[in-house]
Amino acid sequence: MNNSEQLLRRLPNDIGGLPADAIDRTEHALEPWEKRCHALADVLDFHKIINTEEKRRGVEALGAEMIGKLTYYERWIATFANILFQKGILTPSDLARKMDEIEART
Amino acid sequence: MDLSRTSADAATKVVLAQGEAPVFAPGERVRVLTRSPVGHYRVPIYLRGKSGVVESVIEPVGLDNEEEAYGRNAGMKRHYYRVALPMTEIWADYDGSPRDGLHIEVFETWLERI
Amino acid sequence: MPDHHHDHTHDHPHAEISQTERPGYYEIMETAVRELLIEKRLIGANEIRRQIEVLDSRTPALGAKVVARAWVDPAFRSRLLANGRAACEELGLSFYDDTGLIVLENTDTVHNLIVCTLCSCYPRPVLGLPPDWYKLKPYRARAVSEPRAVLAEFGTIIPDDVQIRVSDSTAMVRFLVLPRRPEGTEDYTEEQLTDLVTRDAMIGVVPVTLAAERTAP
C-alpha cells in the first residue's frame, strides 16, 4: 500500500496496534467550557442534529495534523461548526459575527 | 369461505423482515472482510482479514454506523456480533499467552462465514 | 509506515489556564455555537444545563456500587452478567447515551481489559467521563497489541496462565469490568466493599486491593 493511498484508507484515529510511547497517567479536570462542550455534544445527539457517529466522522475529517495539534474538545467544537455549516444550519459568517460579539463582551 | 378463520399453521407462521434475524450464530467461525471503503468506518484496520469465532449476537439490532456517520438516523437495521479472536491471529509477533484474545463488536455487513 | 502525525497526538491542555485569562479561541467558538443554536431554538439553554448535571452525577462511585452489589448478591451478579444494562437500571442507573452494557467478570483464569482504539467509547453512564490517558494514543494504540506490557505500566502483572481478554469498544455496547473481590473482605459490609472499588479496576488496568482507596474522579 503506498503512502498516499494509506492516507485515505486509514482514518487518522485508527491507531490500534501502532507503535506508541509509554502511558502518561497525568489527568486534568475538565475546564468548564470543555464540560459544556461535552453536554452540547450529548444534546446535539439527543436531537439528532449531529449524531455521535457524525461527530466521530467529523473529527476524522479534520485530518491528521489538526487531530494531532488540537485538544480533545477543541476537535469536537471545530467539528460541530463544520457539520453545522455542511447542513446549512449555521453559516460561517453567522459564527464569525457571534464569535466577534462574544470576544467583545468578555 | 370464512376468512375470519385461519388454519393454526397460517396463524403462527411469522415471516421476519430482511435483516431482523441474525445471519451468524454463536460458535460460528467468521472472517472480517478486507474491503477498504473511502469514507467512514468503525472496523479498525488491525482486524481486516482476521478470523475469529462469534461469541454472541448483540441485541437489539442497530443502524449501520457507516451510514449514521453521514446523518442517516433511520433505515435498515442489522445485528452486531461480539467476535473473539486470538491475539496470535492478529499480531504475528504477539508477546503473551497464546490464549490471550481480542473481543470486538463487528457489524453484520463486515463478516463472512468460513 | 506512512508519515502520520499520531506521535504528536495529545489531549492535555497546552498550558496551565488561569481563571483570570480571557477565553481562548475554541472556548469562544463553543459559546458562539451554543448561543446560535439556542437563538434558533434548535436546542434549549436548560437542556445544556440539565446535561451538565447529568454528567456531574455520573462518577465511578456508581460503578463501584454495581460491583459491590454483585459481590454480595449472587442473583444480582447473574443478572448483571446476563444483561448489564438491565441490572444497572435496577439500581436506578439510566443509560442516557442509549448504549448497551456488557459486564465482563474477572476470575482466577481470566483478566479483562477495556479500550476504545478508534475514539474514546467508555461506559459514561456508570463511570462518568474517561481519564485523559484512556483517550490518548499510547493506551489506545498499545492495549490491543501488547496488553501485558500496558498492564505492567499500571503495576499489574498477570500470570501467563491467566487469559487476557481485551475488549475494543467500537459500536453500541460499552464494557465494565467486574473485578475479583479481594481476599480478606469476607466480613466487609456492602458499603465497605464499595469504597474499595476504583475506576481503574473497572477499566481493568488494576485489581481491587485492600490498600486501594477510591478518590475522585
TrEMBL record, chain A:
A Pfam entry, by short name: NHase_beta_N
TM regions (residue ranges): none
InterPro entries, alphabetized: CN_hydtase_beta-like_N, CN_hydtase_beta_C, Elect_transpt_acc-like_dom_sf
Domain Nitrile hydratase beta subunit-like N-terminal: 13-103
Lineage top rank: taxon: Bacteria
UniProt-recorded name of the protein: Nitrile hydratase subunit beta
Native species: Lichenifustis flavocetrariae
UniProtKB/TrEMBL annotation, chain B:
Region forming the signal peptide: none
One of the Pfam families matching this protein, by short name: NHase_beta_C
Name of the protein this chain belongs to: Nitrile hydratase subunit beta
Gene3D superfamilies tied to this protein: 2.30.30.50
InterPro entries: CN_hydtase_beta_dom_C, Elect_transpt_acc-like_dom_sf
Residue stretches making up the Nitrile hydratase beta subunit domain: 20-112
Originating organism: Lichenifustis flavocetrariae
UniProtKB/TrEMBL annotation, chain C:
Superkingdom, natural source: Bacteria
Keywords per UniProt: Iron, Metal-binding
Sequence ranges assigned to domain Nitrile hydratase alpha/Thiocyanate hydrolase gamma in this UniProt record: 26-205
Binding, Fe(3+): C116, C119, S120, C121
Biased composition (Basic and acidic residues): 1-15
GO molecular function, one term: catalytic activity
Region of interest (Disordered), residue spans: 1-21
UniProt protein name: Nitrile hydratase subunit alpha
Annotated source species: Lichenifustis flavocetrariae
